[in-house]
Amino acid sequence: MREWPQPTTVGELAHARSGDKGDRVNIGVIATDEAAFERLGEQLTAARVAAHFEGLIDGDVTRYRLENIHAFNFVGTQALDGGGQVSLRYDTQGKTYAALLLACELPATTDH
Amino acid sequence: MSVRIANAAGFWGDYPDATARLLEAGEFDYLQLEYLAEVTMGVLARLQASDPQRGYANDFVRFVVEPHLEELLDREIRVVTNAGGINPEACAQQVRDIAAGKDLNVTVATVTGDSLTDALSEIDSTTLQNLDTGASFETIVDDVVTAVAYLGAFPVAEALETGADIIITGRVVDPALTLGPLIHEHGWTREDYDRLASGVVAGHLIECGTQVTGGNFLGDWQSIDFENLGYPIADVTSAGNITVTKPPGTGGRVTTETVAEQLIYEIGDPTAYTTPDVTADFTSPTVSQVRENAVRLSDITGTERPEQYKATIHYQNGYKLNGKLLYSRPDALEKARKATALLEQRINALELDIEATNAEYVGHDATHGPAAPEREEYNEILLRFAARSHDKDALRRLGMEFAPLSMAGPPSVTGLTDGGRPRPQPIIDTWPTLVSRKNVTPEVTVYA
């Protein structure tokens, strides 16, 4: 496994966009280069994303990989307080979730 | 040979002058306009209930047909749109009336057969369970507002075969507005999976309008020129190679980054983007910048279509409302939180049958919830307090609890003249399900 001696944020490594389908949210995260893609692949796991969105995404988070555009697609279920029509939130469609994911911190790692 | 398809509406509410922007500087063969979000179908159903002549996206008639019909016909640009909503016939009639008034000769075709509202009672209800929750259709059978199957692109191509100038559809999958013209022009067959998948990718990229040309870009957004943002054009060859561009001289940009953000927008498993025509693999395209503001996608692959049609049943599921109060510093957040506590106490004291509430503090946590870091001091906080119930009267009563807080609650609050008492709005919820192909018969009608 590679070492990353400095902590960072997803926003330093990627840009992103999010949207809705019913009560699901999807957050596409596109790495800026291959090294960033590798680090995201190691550290931005579905479990880390689920923890970062605690209180917003109540269901599961699944991660899909798009090698062709150096991206990951995260799909969260029970993510929008019932979905666009039912939701009592201001952001009924999860449009700002992508920005929240960019704030997610990734720790430094050392290979001990 | 290639076909150029432009998009001039990414949703109902997009810029009214989008078509004008494209016609001014763009060169293209087809103009497509996408109006139907999930929430829009419920709105259309309510409009049609109040007036049988409504139920379609009249932005199309007002901002595309009325001002531009003559130029579109002169330049032989054919138009494909899902503006028909739940009443394509009425939309087609409106277009023909406008043409008659201008002494223009236009042929309109509709694509229908998507409506399942009348057919629902004939479908075995045990097959209509909610795809997400598994719940039984019986639980909502009395609350149905409208129901639609998502049609594919072959009926759109069939409508184009008739020679019609304008194709107005009901509910079709969004990429069908792009794939339909490509099937028609390139003669693609139902087994041309890779090419059909290319058409789906092209449609997916342009169907949200300016979201692929720099709009909403979350990379280096400060460097984007949002003024007069260009609407997208997809140039698609018979082999299925796509080039995404925008008209010269318009704002925004088309780069591999803006295209990547849109490619991944509102999808699930990227290896299986399903439509009634083909299952497209969004991990297959090779994406490259060929020149400034031109991105090419090639090597796209697809596989067989799914057996069943996707359908959505729109049904009434109670009501909701929200009220807002603006608090200034000092202690803006603390004041707003106190107001929330008072509202909750009043709901209890009045024994209002409220099923759920949500308090958001705009300026602090409305977009990022519990993940938002708390600050020492805020200049101001907008309390947005929302509630949901099947008891409309309970919500109406709750709507009367906001204004009194201006004189009976925490200080330095304002904004009460902004819109009056909040009122309950009906929730038209969506119920995703699948229906058998035998329950759906796409139909093309020509109005010459």
TrEMBL record, chain A:
<dbReference type="InterPro" id="IPR056362">
    <property type="entry name" value="AtuA-like_ferredoxin_dom"/>
</dbReference>
<dbReference type="Pfam" id="PF23544">
    <property type="entry name" value="AtuA_ferredoxin"/>
</dbReference>
<feature type="region of interest" description="Disordered">
    <location>
        <begin position="1"/>
        <end position="20"/>
    </location>
</feature>
<feature type="domain" description="AtuA-like ferredoxin-fold">
    <location>
        <begin position="10"/>
        <end position="106"/>
    </location>
</feature>
<protein>
    <recommendedName>
        <fullName>AtuA-like ferredoxin-fold domain-containing protein</fullName>
    </recommendedName>
</protein>
From TrEMBL, chain B:
<feature type="domain" description="Acyclic terpene utilisation N-terminal">
    <location>
        <begin position="3"/>
        <end position="445"/>
    </location>
</feature>
<dbReference type="Pfam" id="PF07287">
    <property type="entry name" value="AtuA"/>
</dbReference>
<dbReference type="InterPro" id="IPR010839">
    <property type="entry name" value="AtuA_N"/>
</dbReference>
<protein>
    <recommendedName>
        <fullName>Acyclic terpene utilisation N-terminal domain-containing protein</fullName>
    </recommendedName>
</protein>
<keyword id="KW-0175">Coiled coil</keyword>
<feature type="coiled-coil region">
    <location>
        <begin position="333"/>
        <end position="360"/>
    </location>
</feature>
